[in-house]
């Protein structure tokens, strides 16, 4: 995964554009042309789209599979104050 994408994901977690809460139910499907909430790129049909709703924030999110894996780790890192 590109280091720029990781930095973007961390920034979006810190500024609240991405939730820190776990996803209650996760759906896997082929991309449908929507944008990834992490990197902003289109999730094309040849990529897996992972989507769900954050339990704590009730925010709907969708990611590329690689972006989802990074979010799963980075969302648990405390936000600097």
Fold blueprint:
Blueprint: H1 3-14, E1 23-30, E2 48-54, E3 60-64, H2 65-74
Antiparallel strand pairs: 1-2, 2-3
Short description:
By secondary structure, this protein is an alpha+beta fold.
What is the domain total for the residues?
Answer: 1
Strand order of the largest sheet: 1-2-3
Q: Overall mean pLDDT score?
A: 91
Total DSSP E strands: 3
**Low-confidence runs:** none
Structural class: alpha+beta
Task: Assess the beta-strand content as a share of residues.
Answer: 15-25%
Helix content range of the residues, please?
25-40%
Describe the structure.
With 81 residues, the protein is α+β, with helices and mostly antiparallel strands. It has one domain. The chain has a three-stranded antiparallel sheet. Helix 1 packs across helix 2. The radius of gyration is 12 Å and the shape is globular.
């Amino acid at each position: 995964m590109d280091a720029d994408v990781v930095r973007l994901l961390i920034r979006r977690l810190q500024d609240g554009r991405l939730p820190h809460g776990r996803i209650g139910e996760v759906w896997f499907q082929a991309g449908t042309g929507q944008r990834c909430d992490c990197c902003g790129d289109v999730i094309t049909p040849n990529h897996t789209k992972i989507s769900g709703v954050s339990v704590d924030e009730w925010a709907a999110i969708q990611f590329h599979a690689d972006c989802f894996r990074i979010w799963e780790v980075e969302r648990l890192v405390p936000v600097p104050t």
